[in-house]
Amino acid sequence: MILAIASGKGGTGKTTVACSLAAALERPVVLADCDVEEPNAHLFLKPHWDATIPVTVDVPVIDGEKCTLCGACQDLCQFKAIAVLPETVLTFQELCHSCGGCALVCPAEAVSWGSRRIGERRTGRRGPIRFVDGTLRIGEAMAPPLIRAVRRAAADIPDCAVVLVDAPPGTSCPVVASLWGADYVLLVTEPTPFGLNDLALAVAAVRKMGIPCGLVVNRCDIGDDRIHAFARRENLPILLEIPFDRKVAEQYAQGHLLVDVFPEWKAMMRGLYDAVVRELERGSSGASPEGRASTLEAREVSA
Q1: How far does CA 142 lie from the centroid of its chain?
Q2: Distance, first Cα to last Cα, the chain
Q3: How confident is the model at residue 283 (pLDDT cuts 50, 70, 90)?
Q4: How many CB atoms lie within 10 A of CB 302?
Q5: Nearest-5° angle of CA 282, CA 157, CA 55?
Q6: Which of 64, 127, 142, 208 sits a CA distance of 20 to 30 A from 85?
Q7: Closest Cα to residue 12, out of 236, 195, 179, 145?
Q8: DSSP letter string over 120-159?
């Protein structure tokens, strides 16, 4: 099972829930931190690192002797990564999305492929938890290729029946890359106006992808009840409510894993996991059957 933990905004407690879930299950599990721009799950899990591997993407290399300056590659590229000048061709590797179209349309077969490093991914372990994360190179604009590399590495780890994906906040391309192919999404939110606004965006994105989802309401005893009204209106199950606790906030700020400090958190996280399993067995809280089918089909193709 691939269980993604996401949120419409940062600071809701998404990583806290992901790390606590991984530790509370006490079974072979993979935790993939896909927030490659600001990975922080390792600060709580403190894994023993096994390997650090550079991640590269393909970029076009133009053979000046073969190139006829016809401009076909420039016309095709929607990201302006190639510029054909009167006497040469310039490539802007940071803009390239590695689609391969320029090589396909080149009549002179002048396009070959080089590589460009965009970051690195790491693998490690803490007891039964296998851990994967990625760190995007400073200045990089595109996180999805590195996120896909983290997801592939997590999928390749054997003998782990559960993969937890700690997604980046928001609803942009990195989030979509993190959630793609997930069986269920836990959306962590808070009962504030900002929390509700960003939750609505996240729910719309997840349903567009055809993935069933449920809510975790963190700091449930602050703010108002508009999150609950929204959940009733949208037929979203609230699987867990976590009240504010200053002691929990203090331990989190010191980088402690909460299930190690508070025994009740272990039971709470196990209950959350059981609730997700029940939701999947009931087949509720998802988007249309057509959307779910297309997501599963895409997952099979990518595999």
Answers
A1: 13
A2: 14
A3: confident
A4: 12
A5: 115
A6: 142
A7: 195
A8: EEEEEEETTEEEEEEEEPTT----HHHHHHHHHHHHT-SS
- Distance of alpha carbon 30 from alpha carbon 36, whole angstroms: 16
**Would you say 163 and 1 are in contact if contact means Cβ atoms under 8 Å apart?**
yes
Parallel, antiparallel, or unpaired: how do β-strands 129-136 and 111-126 relate? antiparallel
DSSP symbol at 40: -
* Predicted confidence (pLDDT) at residue 94 exceeds the cutoff of 80: yes
Find the DSSP H helices in the chain: 14-25, 42-45, 72-76, 101-105, 144-155, 173-179, 193-208, 226-233, 246-253, 258-261, 263-282, 289-302
The packing angle between helices 226-233 and 193-208, to 10°, is: 20
Q: CB neighbours of 268 closer than 8 A, spacing ≥ 6?
A: 24, 240, 242
In contact, 108 and 66? CB cutoff 8 Å? yes
CA distance linking residue 189 with residue 243, whole number of Å: 12
pLDDT digits (tens, 9 = 90+) for 196-230: 999 999 999 999 999 999 999 999 888 788 999 99
Identify the helix (H) or strand (E) that includes residue 113: strand 111-126
pLDDT digits (tens, 9 = 90+) for 74-88: 999 999 999 999 999
pTM, to two decimals: 0.87
Spatial distance between the Cα atoms of 121 and 52, rounded to a whole number of angstroms:
6
Strands 213-218 and 184-189: parallel
Name the band, by pLDDT with cuts 50, 70 and 90, for residue 286.
very low
Q: Where are the alpha helices (DSSP H) in 224-262?
A: 226-233, 246-253, 258-261
